């Protein structure tokens, strides 16, 4: 498939790591160490090796890649979008761990379109990615589960491994690894934080029925209300996607209907909180003086707006996904489902003020 | 290479789009439209087609991919990191345009390591990416230019195309497309904005000699000072990388030395501004009441902290890169260098207050 320059034998033999070592005047072990990127090396040595790699147009593991099921050099992650900092931070964890393991990392983006997802997973499989990590919020319906089961079996048959990250498990007969984080626990904790400060009318931003992530977060919110004996008022749950502009839209709409009938806001993620904060400010309402607010995710925007939020271990999710998939790949007989749940915790900043209980 | 299930002829023939259409009971044109993702389609039709694609394990363009130099289905972008919103927004533009053109988008991450960059570009070339887009800030030295020229020629020989995005041109004999944006003009305009408001002692955050992006931004800053007849004071230029934590570090260090000897700050990008703002607040200094500040990039964090900044057309950079590369690919005889410069402009928010001239 790949065009490869010849190494000096008339083009009948692909360049090997030995050719590179000989050309650079160093040992094979040195070339291997430098190409894996996991050990320090002297700049001069590195320079010689990279020059030889370029001049011989060496493609590392080119031989191994031609063998069915042989180990590859890349791990793949598939996300809706790289602009969403949630996805970006998980992808960063994947990239970091891939680098530690001496692998490349490739990211496929789908724009949330199942057909692009299918085509992307097929491409990753063709390229012998060692694992394919799918991230984030989904509609957990039959069509989704059927699609994932197909991916899992096709990847497994090709010697690769499906990993679901921040998504629910598929079932014991599907060869997929699952790395989740505790959405319900985090949402329960941060809602309890507001309730403990005396808040009873807590607006929830970002209800999105059918989608796994907002459903888990609103479940934690409702459980906490119930634990504190606060009646559940569906009119306090505002529907929308988990984007900044949606938070702005929801609060703007709510305040257009009259003065706030809530003392606190639980934004389904930090981006919603940032948008909501802007709409509050345009109405002359300040956080936390007038309205308390909490978010979810602990992305950089939360630090910028001094938001108390739930820390999601995004990078750890990505690192764990790669680590487990590569360990798993070493034991092909153990293709039973594996399921990891990472914890979440509150990060307290300056966005909540206690009030007297009503 | 790729494992492909058989279509019903005993496995001697790969599945074609006609097989998918027959299996789904629709026309070839319908399958093509649905797989390209560029036209609306009825959910029922889409469902039938996707079911056929899964059952036949159809890999679109699998035949074409086998032919040397034939058109592929993917465009590739290589970035240091997907966590940096600058890179993420360019990658988003690439993904958007790729989807419009019916292509997949794959993103390679390098962590800034030239060896990983080399391995990633090789992988992209092996996979017949139609173009390989490299983004962002670099040390524009001989080693860099030699590496890029190697990439450009290797990709061109493989029927692909190197695109440099937000990087300087390589020279007329190197077959690379270059899409830049106006760093110097933007920095000049936003510095002039501070100067027009009466500021004379303007701290510059993020000087990083040798790196193309900060060098261009500081050049615009110095030019504007010169145009306003303000003497250049090198003590006002603080060195550091363009990251949030660095902005915090620089301002913390500066204020530890004594009260501010500046009335305004030009942060080399919005992340530096966010970090600087945090350090200012810890010293009880408010923006814009005590210190004026401007940034660069117009990333979401700028809206969160109400920062006047320079808008960089990140997504347009990505879209233009794909558009030009794919058009270019249609005329292989025109492999001369092509160079596009996109404009930048100020976005005024609430972070600058006029002062009396000194």
Quick one: overall form of chain A? elongated
What is the CATH superfamily classification of the largest domain in chain A?
Response regulator
- Largest sheet of chain A, order of strands side by side? 2-1-3-4-5-11
Query: Biggest interface and its residues per chain?
Result: A-B, 66 and 65 residues
CATH topology description of the largest domain in chain A: Rossmann fold
CATH class of the largest domain in chain A: Alpha Beta
Structural class of chain A: alpha/beta
Task: Tell me the major beta sheet of chain A.
Answer: 6 strands, parallel
Quaternary state reads homodimer
What is the number of beta strands of chain A? Answer: 12
Distance between the termini of chain A: 71 Å
Number of H- or I-type helical stretches of chain A: 13
CATH architecture of the largest domain in chain A: 3-Layer(aba) Sandwich
Count the domains of chain A: 3
Low-confidence stretches of chain A: 1-12, 61-71
Share in β-strands of chain A? 5-15%
Q: What order do the helices and strands of chain A follow?
A: HHHHEHEHEHEEHEHEHEHEHEHEE
Structure overview:
The structure is a homodimer of 358-residue chains. With 358 residues, chain A is an alpha/beta fold. Chain A has three domains: 17-60, lambda repressor-like DNA-binding domains (434 Repressor (Amino-terminal Domain)), CATH 1.10.260; 74-181 and 314-344, Rossmann fold, CATH 3.40.50.2300; 184-312, Rossmann fold. Chain A contains 13 helices and twelve strands. The first copy, chain A, has helices at 17-24, 28-36, 43-56, 62-66, 85-100, 114-126, 142-157, 183-196, 212-227, 244-256, 270-282, 300-304, 314-329, and strands spanning 74-79, 104-109, 132-135, 162-165, 176-181, 202-207, 237-239, 264-267, 292-294, 309-311, 338-342, 345-347. In chain A, strands 2-1-3-4-5-11 form a six-stranded parallel β-sheet, sandwiched between helices. The first copy, chain A, has a four-stranded parallel β-sheet with strand order 7-6-8-9, sandwiched between helices. In chain A, α10 packs parallel to α11. The model of chain A is unreliable at 1-12 and 61-71 (pLDDT under 50). Chains A, B: Residues 15-69 form the HTH lacI-type domain. Chains A, B: It comes from Nonomuraea solani. Chains A, B: This is LacI family transcriptional regulator. Chains A, B: Pfam families: LacI, Peripla_BP_3.
């Amino acid at each position: 498939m790949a065009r490869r320059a010849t190494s000096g034998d008339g083009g009948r033999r692909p360049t090997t790591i030995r050719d590179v070592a000989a050309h650079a005047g160093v040992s094979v072990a040195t070339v291997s160490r430098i190409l894996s990127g996991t050990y320090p090396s002297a700049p001069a040595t590195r320079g010689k090796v990279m020059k030889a790699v370029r001049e011989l147009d060496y493609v590392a593991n080119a031989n191994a890649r031609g063998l069915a099921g042989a180990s590859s050099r890349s791990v793949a992650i598939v996300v809706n979008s790289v602009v969403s900092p949630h996805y970006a931070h998980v992808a960063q964890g994947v990239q970091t761990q891939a680098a530690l393991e001496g692998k490349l990392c490739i990211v496929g983006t789908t724009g949330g379109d199942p057909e692009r997802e299918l085509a992307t997973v097929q491409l990753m499989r063709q390229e012998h990615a060692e694992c394919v990590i799918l991230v984030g919020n989904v509609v957990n319906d039959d069509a989704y589960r059927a699609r994932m089961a197909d991916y899992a079996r096709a990847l497994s048959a090709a010697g690769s491994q499906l990993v679901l990250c921040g998504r629910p498990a598929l079932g014991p007969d599907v060869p997929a690894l699952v790395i989740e984080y505790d959405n319900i626990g985090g949402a329960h904790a941060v809602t309890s934080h507001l309730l403990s400060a005396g808040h009873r009318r807590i607006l929830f931003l970002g209800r999105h029925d059918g989608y796994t992530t907002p459903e888990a977060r609103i479940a934690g919110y409702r459980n906490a209300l119930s634990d504190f004996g606060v009646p559940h008022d569906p009119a306090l749950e505002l529907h929308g996607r988990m984007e900044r502009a949606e938070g702005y839209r929801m609060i703007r709409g709510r305040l257009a209907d009259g003065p706030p009938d809530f003392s606190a806001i639980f934004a389904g993620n930090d981006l919603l909180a940032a948008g909501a904060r802007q709409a509050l400010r345009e109405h002359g309402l300040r956080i936390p003086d007038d309205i308390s607010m909490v978010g979810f995710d602990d992305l950089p925007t939360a630090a910028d707006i001094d938001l108390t939020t739930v820390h999601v271990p995004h990078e750890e999710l990505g690192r764990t996904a790669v680590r487990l998939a590569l360990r798993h790949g070493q034991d092909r007989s153990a293709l039973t489902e594996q399921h990891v749940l990472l914890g979440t915790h509150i990060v307290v900043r300056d966005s909540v003020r206690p009030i007297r209980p009503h």
